[in-house]
């Protein structure tokens, strides 16, 4: 079988660039955030000094839900699974001495994505950085929150309005910014299969495309800035094929919109190794799992990569574990020599066969979703949620029966427990964050804040794009929780069909 589709040519199954990593390797983008903005800033600098080439911000749960650290709902969660960001003051500390015009920043944020981008832009303005030079990504994929992750705030209709506002604003103001990172990763972490990950994420992407076009945007205005975020699991060959299948499916999906810019049809994606595959038993074995998953992601043509730390099944990663995770990528890039080959599996009959099977299986699921009214209608009916639950349950049964082998869990078990030192979160960190927020709130121009929030509320009640009023509210001194309260007042909140 010959090389019918070399890298850089449609339908991009073999890669979106002709030379792939020979010219530029993937971005090494390790996810980090904990305790306080100051401590996270130090972790960022350590990673950059060790060769990381992009930043990825993990926010704590209150921030992901648009809550201030002093909100009663935030009690016990401040700084626990990510960094708390309450105001522009925290954003200043988070990126202290880091040039936003020279670094690419990914922010895993969804419900309050517009607010966190507003904070980032306000900081750039404060530092005299041209908005057009800002590069990075906000996840801004609210549909997968309704399906699998649960960190939504507003009803779907209003959430989609915010998603589309961000896409529209970035097209005009920050052209290098990726406005949506369509996440299959969180769907896969919840238990779906490889073909379901493809189907659900691409169905969600199709919904965002249609919403943007209804807003009046042309396909080439925004499609080049839609990126994807996939997980990479242990089935080495299947995962490589999954990435190839995703590129082909996106190319075929874009055909109906007749884009003029080739980048509109090129699926770009970030990969994270699979957290759900990590085990608390024999945790050092996780380094091997992560290495193979990372290799599969690279052979599959990823544009950026996060490698998990071996101790993440136990707690937040220690500095030693983070270093090994980064070094894993660096060994692949520097020592294996695979970057010399744009597509190592070009012409493989097996790879083509499995890729075609994944595409066929995913298309069946996507067609079912479309016939049932599309991604949003199916989410409201709980269709994707049920499919994920069924797949997760089947996997659990297979592990418990021994059909699916997991080293350290049901295979090659040792009686001696492997002892590693877990990262200890400073219990006083949340107290320091609360004190910082208190001082910040005490030294503000209340009239300016009230005027800015009043303007924000007026905009929320119209069809006007929300971004500029959000940026103004942030610059006036408003906190994440205060702007969130305004939007809840106008938009309301939402409870899933399951009642959760």
List the defining traits of the structure above:
500 residues, alpha/beta, TIM Barrel, 9-stranded parallel β-sheet, globular
Number of helices: 19
Uncertain segments are none
Question: What composes the largest sheet?
Answer: 9 strands, parallel
Number of domains: 1
**CATH level-1 class:** Alpha Beta
Silhouette:
globular
Multimeric status of the protein? single chain
Helical content stands at 40-55%
The whole-angstrom Rg is: 22 Å
Distance between the termini: 51 Å
Q: What's the CATH topology label?
A: TIM Barrel
Give the averaged pLDDT, no decimals: 94
CATH architecture descriptor = Alpha-Beta Barrel
Strand ordering within the main sheet: 5-4-3-2-1-9-8-7-6
Please report the total strand number as a whole number. 9
Class per helix and strand makeup: alpha/beta
Characterize the structure shown.
By secondary structure, the protein is an alpha/beta fold. It has a single domain (23-401), classed as Alpha-Beta Barrel (TIM Barrel), CATH 3.20.20.240. The protein has 19 helices and nine strands. A nine-stranded parallel β-sheet has the order 5-4-3-2-1-9-8-7-6. The protein is globular and about 70 Å long. The model has no long low-confidence stretch (mean pLDDT 94).
């Amino acid at each position: 079988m010959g090389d019918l589709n070399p890298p850089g040519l449609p339908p991009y199954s073999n890669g979106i660039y002709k030379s792939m990593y020979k010219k530029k390797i993937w971005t090494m983008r390790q996810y980090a955030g904990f305790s306080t903005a100051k401590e996270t800033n130090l972790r960022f600098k350590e990673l950059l000094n060790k060769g990381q080439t992009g930043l990825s911000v993990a926010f704590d749960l209150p921030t992901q839900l648009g809550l201030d650290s002093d909100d009663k709902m935030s009690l016990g969660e401040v700084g626990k699974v990510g960094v708390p960001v309450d105001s522009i003051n925290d954003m200043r500390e988070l990126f202290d001495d880091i040039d936003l015009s020279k670094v690419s920043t990914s922010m895993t944020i969804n419900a309050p994505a517009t607010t966190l981008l507003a904070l980032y832009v306000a900081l750039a303005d404060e530092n005299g950085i041209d908005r057009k030079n800002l590069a990075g990504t906000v996840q801004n994929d609210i549909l997968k929150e309704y399906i699998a992750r649960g960190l939504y705030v507003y009803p779907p209709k209003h959430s989609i309005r915010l998603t589309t506002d961000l896409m529209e604003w970035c097209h005009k103001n920050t052209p290098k910014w990726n406005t949506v990172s369509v996440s299959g990763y969180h769907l896969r972490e919840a238990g779906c299969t490889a073909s379901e990950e493809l189907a659900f994420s691409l169905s969600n992407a199709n919904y965002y495309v249609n919403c943007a076009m209804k807003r009046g945007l042309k396909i080439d205005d925004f499609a080049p800035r839609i990126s994807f975020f996939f997980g990479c699991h242990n089935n080495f060959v299947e995962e490589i094929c999954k990435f190839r299948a995703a590129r082909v499916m996106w190319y075929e999906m874009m055909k109906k919109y007749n884009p003029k810019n080739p980048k509109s049809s090129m699926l770009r994606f970030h990969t994270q190794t699979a957290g759900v595959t990590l085990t608390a038993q024999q945790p050092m074995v996780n380094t091997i799992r992560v290495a193979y998953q990372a290799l599969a992601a690279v052979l599959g043509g990823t544009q950026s990569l996060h490698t998990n730390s071996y101790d993440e099944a136990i707690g937040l990663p220690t500095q030693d574990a983070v270093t090994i995770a980064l070094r894993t990528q660096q060994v692949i890039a520097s020592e294996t020599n695979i970057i010399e080959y744009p597509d190592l599996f070009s012409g493989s009959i097996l790879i083509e066969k499995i890729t075609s099977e994944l595409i066929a299986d995913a298309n069946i699921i996507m067609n079912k979703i479309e016939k049932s009214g599309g991604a949003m209608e199916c989410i409201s009916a709980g269709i994707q949620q049920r499919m994920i639950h069924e797949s997760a349950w089947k996997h659990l049964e297979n592990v418990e029966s021994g059909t699916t082998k997991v080293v350290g869990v049901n295979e090659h078990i040792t009686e001696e427990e492997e002892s590693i030192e877990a990262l200890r979160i400073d219990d006083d960190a949340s107290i320091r964050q609360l004190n910082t927020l208190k001082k910040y709130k005490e030294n503000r121009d209340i009239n300016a804040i009230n005027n800015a929030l009043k303007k924000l509320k007026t905009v929320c009640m119209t069809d006007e794009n929300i971004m500029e009023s959000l940026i103004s509210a942030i610059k006036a001194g408003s906190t994440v929780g205060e702007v969130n309260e305004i939007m809840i007042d106008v938009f309301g909140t939402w409870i899933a069909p399951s009642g959760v």
